[in-house]
Specification:
Elements lengths: L14 E3 L2 E2 L4 E5 L3 E3 L4 E5 L2 E5 L5 E3 L2 E5 L24
Antiparallel strand pairs: 1-4, 2-3, 3-8, 5-6, 6-7
Length: about 90
């Protein structure tokens, strides 16, 4: 599911999140899975991901940032050839 982290767009439904992938390849992985409620808003502030809840409650998320390499090979070799099995005569 694509989430908008502009600080003003509320989530349309509750979401259980274990990682946030940014468009530029960076990923934020919270210290523990996070349950976002419908109506929560996300925002980046100075490299920190912040959850804004209804009623003005603010949560700075603890976790790690890292970069995911998305390079995929253009060619994938096929599976190895199958070996012929010898049939045994049934008694």
């Amino acid at each position: 599911m694509r989430l908008i982290a502009d600080g003003s767009t509320p989530l349309s439904r509750a979401v259980l999140v274990d990682a946030f992938e940014h468009d530029d390849g960076y990923t934020f992985e919270p210290a523990s899975p996070l349950l976002l409620a419908a109506g929560d808003r996300l925002r980046f502030e100075d490299g920190v991901l912040v959850v804004l809840r209804d009623g003005g409650v603010r949560h700075d998320l603890v976790g790690d940032w890292y970069w995911r390499c998305c390079i995929r090979p253009a060619y994938r070799p096929g599976p190895p050839p199958a070996r012929r099995t010898t049939e045994r005569a049934r008694p």
